[in-house]
Task: inverse folding
């Protein structure tokens, strides 16, 4: 088939246009100014994330202050799992983003292994390092290198709805597990499901945190240094199993994900829940009644164990691609210092309810009441230790929910639950 | 001399771009997957060759074996439940009953809707607390039949498969197009010979669309083997790994930066798919040649 000359001409013009557009699109950096350093920051703190508005504001202010010399461009990645996959792929292919955020765990700390990330250890030795909460820089240090800046941290205390407790005639949160089961019976008698649980999602988050609390109570602050074959882990599994029995949780907990677990608490169906401070914004906006009656506390004392422990961990670290260009490196450091400046951390913390690894002074009037309870819970903790997920690779964390599902469905005993975890780690 | 011989340079010229792309984006990654499946590699440090240890580890792992079994169940369900359902529906619609065009669109509609939206809808339907399925069963006096459909080992896999098998639109459209292209004269001749509707479908329609059925079943098996989305969205492989599939296991290993294991799973998936497709073509090829001999 022959095409008319006019059509061929149009096609050629279109092709030439495409070539020109692609040529000019490569000139963005030059157009922005020869000396301006552009730092791309793919981030999850966008969209509905409670930190998003203040992060956007802080970046805009930084860009304004460094107009013509440094420009940080946010690349929105609202999907957490997608963002993590994207990072894994980018780092495996050596294409590290200029700046990025990651959840520190044994999987992501593998990023440190190559020569791909910027090392901040020398920079943090000065006054900058003094602004961080004690122990957080150590937690981000591997082989004497600090290849990420500890940024957001969290504790995940037990949440409970005091209004539902009052309705069931329970005055205060139980101090021991014996009292806890008695309180569960009272709640059930009042037509309230005691706890929110979940075996689904990528990590059975709520139940994994319950398990971590119980394990910490039984095994103390160094419990995660023990092998999973230690009896502590089996005992904790037996207690967690009871949470799924006798109507102590909802029918859809097995297979349920974070939306199910959190949804029941927000709806006032369940009286007890666990999550971190980032959920404050959600409960405040979506369930103001529940928010008004929510209190946080430590887990009940385990039989033969200690009390008052909290589960806390680094939630997100900031990292950057290694560069041999000193100007570019200085630009990255400048931005990191801006994002971790105490006055900016205060703004983002007050705005989002999240807790951070940088110390800042604040008056009572500015703090959200629930956020204040979190701070007090952290301050009053007898010790703070990490959670299960923070001590295993992501595939083992995923196996937790599968092993839990098997156990609560009566297909495995607590010992077999632990054995399944051990098998996954091998 | 045939045109293909005289114009071979032209043919090569047209095939070359696709062949190059195929090599770059399929063959090279495929070889890479097989090679790295024999290594210990997290994508960051250098690979170390470990021979077949990844495969030995995989076949010794209960979750892997369960996932492989589930993939076969998926392939079987799609090939032997979904395709026959699509065929029967296509046969009915090809008779052009009143409103057949509307029904054709309705059946095909789920294929243009996001898998995520469909999965979310089914999760809500199956929910043990507020799901409409349990409410319906309770309302008609079948309370004992209610389940935590996605949370029980016995019901989770059938529940995830059922929501997929129901969407017959894709294969129905392929088969319907085939049936509509069959000349009416064949049906008229069969009718004159006294064949009823059922016999017409059995002895005219089915033999005429045999090729399409083989293609549909091959595609169904391929979909079954590479299945991932609905399981990931609805159960994430749970409870107790009872709905896990190889694609999901591969995804979890990649997330843990265990590319050696992930690519070993990928290799098993590719080889299994290839073998199953060869098996299906052989079986149907034999049936086809046998039926030709009879004719």
Result:
């Amino acid at each position: 088939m022959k095409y008319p000359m006019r059509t061929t001409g149009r096609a050629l013009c279109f092709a030439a246009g495409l070539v020109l557009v692609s040529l000019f699109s490569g000139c963005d950096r030059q157009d922005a100014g020869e000396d301006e350093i552009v730092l791309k920051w793919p981030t999850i703190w966008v969209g509905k994330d409670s930190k998003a508005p203040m992060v956007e504001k802080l970046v805009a202010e930084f860009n304004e202050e460094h107009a013509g010399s440094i420009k940080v461009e946010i690349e929105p990645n609202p999907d957490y799992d997608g963002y993590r996959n994207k990072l894994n792929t980018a780092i495996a292919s050596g294409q590290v983003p200029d700046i990025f955020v990651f959840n520190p765990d044994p999987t992501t700390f593998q990023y440190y292994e190559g020569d791909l990330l910027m090392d901040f250890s020398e920079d943090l030795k000065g006054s900058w390092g003094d602004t961080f909460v004690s122990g957080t820089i150590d937690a981000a240090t591997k082989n004497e290198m600090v290849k990420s800046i500890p940024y957001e941290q969290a504790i995940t205390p037990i949440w409970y709805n005091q209004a539902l407790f009052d309705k069931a005639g329970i005055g205060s949160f139980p101090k021991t597990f014996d009292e806890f089961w008695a309180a569960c019976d009272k709640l059930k008698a009042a037509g309230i499901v005691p706890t929110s649980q979940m075996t689904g999602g990528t990590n059975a988050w709520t139940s994994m945190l319950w398990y971590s609390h119980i394990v910490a109570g039984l095994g103390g602050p160094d419990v995660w240094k023990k092998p999973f074959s230690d009896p502590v882990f089996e005992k904790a599994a037996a207690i967690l199993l009871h949470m799924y029995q006798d109507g102590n949780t909802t029918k859809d907990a097995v297979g349920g994900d974070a939306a199910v677990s959190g949804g029941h608490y927000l709806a006032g169906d369940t009286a007890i829940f666990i999550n971190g401070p980032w959920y404050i914004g959600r409960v405040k906006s979506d369930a103001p009644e529940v928010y008004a009656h929510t209190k946080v506390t430590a887990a009940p004392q385990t039989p033969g164990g200690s009390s008052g422990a909290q589960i806390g961990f680094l939630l997100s670290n900031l990292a950057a691609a290694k560069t041999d260009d000193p100007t570019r490196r200085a630009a990255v450091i400048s931005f990191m210092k801006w994002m971790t400046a105490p006055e900016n951390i205060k703004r983002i913390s007050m705005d989002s309810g999240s807790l951070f690894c940088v110390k800042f002074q604040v008056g009572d009037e500015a703090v959200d009441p629930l956020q204040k309870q979190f701070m007090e819970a952290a301050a009053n903790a007898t010790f703070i230790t990490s959670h299960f997920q923070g001590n295993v690779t992501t595939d083992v964390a995923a196996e937790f929910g599968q092993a839990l599902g098997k156990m609560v469905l009566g297909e495995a005993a607590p010992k077999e639950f632990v054995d399944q975890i051990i098998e996954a780690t091998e | 001399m045939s045109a293909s011989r005289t114009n071979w340079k032209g043919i090569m010229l047209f095939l070359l771009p696709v062949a190059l792309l195929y090599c770059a984006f399929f063959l090279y990654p495929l070889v890479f997957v097989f090679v790295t499946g024999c290594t210990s590699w997290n994508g960051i440090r250098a690979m170390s060759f470990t021979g077949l240890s990844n495969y030995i580890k995989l076949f010794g792992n209960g979750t892997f074996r369960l996932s492989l079994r589930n993939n076969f169940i998926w392939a079987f369900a799609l090939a032997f439940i979904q395709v026959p359902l699509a065929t029967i529906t296509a046969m009915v619609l090809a008779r052009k009953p009143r409103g057949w065009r509307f029904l054709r669109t309705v059946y095909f509609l789920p294929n243009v809707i996001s898998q995520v939206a469909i999965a979310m809808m089914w999760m809500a339907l199956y929910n043990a607390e507020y799901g409409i399925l349990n409410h319906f069963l309770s309302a008609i006096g079948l309370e004992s039949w209610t389940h935590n459909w996605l949370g029980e080992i016995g019901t989770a896999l059938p529940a995830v498969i059922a929501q997929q098998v129901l969407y017959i639109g894709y294969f129905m459209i392929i088969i319907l197009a085939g049936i509509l292209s069959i000349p009416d004269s064949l049906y008229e001749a069969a009718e004159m010979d006294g064949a009823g509707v059922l016999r017409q479908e059995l002895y005219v329609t089915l033999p005429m669309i045999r090729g399409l059925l083989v293609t549909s079943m091959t595609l169904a098996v391929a979909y079954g083997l590479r299945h991932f989305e609905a399981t990931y969205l609805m159960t994430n492989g749970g409870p107790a790994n009872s709905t896990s599939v190889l694609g999901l296991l591969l995804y979890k290993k990649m997330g843990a930066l265990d590319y050696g294991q992930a690519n070993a799973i990928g290799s098993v998936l590719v080889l299994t798919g290839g073998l199953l497709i060869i098996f299906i073509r052989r079986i149907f090829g034999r049936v086809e040649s046998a039926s030709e001999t009879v004719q």
